Amino acid sequence: MTEGVNELHETYDVSGHAEMLAIRRAQKELQTNDLSAYTMYASGEPCPMCLAAMYLAGIENVFYCASMEEAVEAGLGKAKTIYEDMQKPKSERTLSMIHMPLDDGAENPMTLWRERK
Amino acid sequence: MTEGVNELHETYDVSGHAEMLAIRRAQKELQTNDLSAYTMYASGEPCPMCLAAMYLAGIENVFYCASMEEAVEAGLGKAKTIYEDMQKPKSERTLSMIHMPLDDGAENPMTLWRERK
User: pTM value?
Assistant: First the structure.
């Protein structure tokens, strides 16, 4: 079992949410990125960063106590706002996502990755 | 300017995406969680973990080169799958989110947080 506690206030690291730290510590300890056999227990409903990290780690179950609505009531509503913004079409989001495609003829790193030996 | 390169393969850390590392390094260097004056440049369209981290850091603009579709073509389609799953109602997702409310009368950490002095 590994644990994490929100270290945001100490370390200046927005990725310091408890769930992220627990995942990072488990992966380091077990020397694997695959936590598919593991379950996450969180005090509150995970924010989208932490939830996506669970997906990336292959975690299939997360138990949480406080709902997003309770977090909002406690003045911790940022995660809900982010979830809502991420649901919108890119053009309507507060965070602008600007696609800058490669110029014609430029070497494409995605193609190089696909063709790697 | 801070930079990050995907360190997933070296460190067993799914939070080792380039964007996450760049954010963490910038926050540590500047001793702040607020990167609202900064712009992210990414080789590919960010995954939901990295995108949410940008929101948490207050970044308002991200430029990216390869689109999610190009990533899928290159065999890097996990982010797209996660975005799609996160759009679904909780009950239909591959990652089960199980709400375990507090028992009646149990001390609620969210209330304690709200009432802290």
Answer: 0.90
